[in-house]
Each structure stands twice: as C-alpha cells, then as structure tokens.
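notes to self, project folder thing:

trying the whole complex as one job this time. last attempt i did each chain seperately and stitching them together was a nightmare. two parts in total, labels are on each line so i dont mix them up again. if this works i'll redo the older ones the same way
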Amino acid sequence: AQKITQTQPGMFVQEKEAVTLDCTYDTSDPSYGLFWYKQPSSGEMIFLIYQGSYDQQNATEGRYSLNFQKARKSANLVISASQLGDSAMYFCAMRGDFGNEKLTFGTGTRLTIIP
Amino acid sequence: DAGVTQSPTHLIKTRGQQVTLRCSPKSGHDTVSWYQQALGQGPQFIFQYYEEEERQRGNFPDRFSGHQFPNYSSELNVNALLLGDSALYLCASSSTAGELFFGEGSRLTVL
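result (full assembly):
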C-alpha cells in the first residue's frame, strides 16, 4: 500500500519569500513517481512538478523545485520568490509501478501568501 | 487544444437517486481516471479506464461504475446516492504512463 503524509495543514508566508511544503511517503513498489499539484478554489488540479524514484537529480520547474531525499522518503516542494497567486491548496501525490498507476494523495497544505 | 472537460460542473441530487458524470480527455490521451475529493480531503482514486475496460479500481462500492467509449471519453455513474457521496469528482486523463491532466471537476451535492 502507498501512503502520503503532509503534516502542515496551513502555512502563511510573506510575499517574495521562499516556502517549503513537506511531504513524506511510504511504498513497497521498487519504482514510483512523486507529484505535486496546486488546487485553487476553482477545483482544478494543476500539475506543478514530477520526480521519478530513479532520477538522479532533483526536479525543477521554474520557481518550483522538489527536494527529493530517497533514504528519508521525503519529497518536499520548494517555491522560490512566492507570489500572491501562489495562494492555494497544495497536494503531494505518488504513483506506483506499471499496473499500479493510480495516484495516492496526501491531505494537502493550504498556503496563504501575505502581501 | 482543449484540456480535460467535465460536465456538469455542479449538480444537486437527493438520497437514493442516480447520477452520471461525464469526462472528455485531453486530445491524444487514451486513459481516464476518476477521483472523489470530499471537502477538506485529498482526492481518492475510484477507477481507471483504458481501451474501454476498467483497468484498476480503488476501494469504492459497486454503486460506483463507469464506462469508456471508443472516442476515449468516459462516464462515472453512482447509484443509490448517499449523503456521503457529496464531493468534487475529478477526471484525469493521460497517455500511457504519462503525466496526468485534471479537469475542473463536477461538484455533487446530495440532499
């Protein structure tokens, strides 16, 4: 079974500061993928970044980077230079091996950017 | 290029009724997954369809059923609605082992 844990229900961050959203995971699959999604109030899940379990380098996408520490089973999202539009729910998710491709989500972190 | 589209966006039903939600995948995608997101929770996987067959199913009762059509669009059917079925239902599409794109969801309220 796969499990994602997000221990920060809510965070408040000053605009232009960097923020780290925590995510730990558990799985028995030998290979897996880790995702971060942003969900604004409209409801759509917006893909931010992906990290494969065998990727050697941490993933980056613009202002988003994923701090992947395999031994600690953590996949924290780092947002640099936060903007007011970053205020939303953020979900960490995991996908298993071929044949187990469902996404398992955490409970999410509500991020609020303060002007 | 249209992304994933879902209909209806909002609907209200009463207990015991049946509901059908629809999803059109992103162009080029052949796999559709459905998720249920209760208020304040992360999405929960319901099932996935590929080549018109259910390929994987989450821990949901048989009241939840689905279908995929030859054009890859999909329907989610829920019978004998319960109050606890009130949620945002998200559809996601992908190509084989590719990135998932989500629609904006169908918000179901059961009274």
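what i see at first glance: Chain B touches chain A through 22 residues (CB under 8 Å).
need to look closer tmrw
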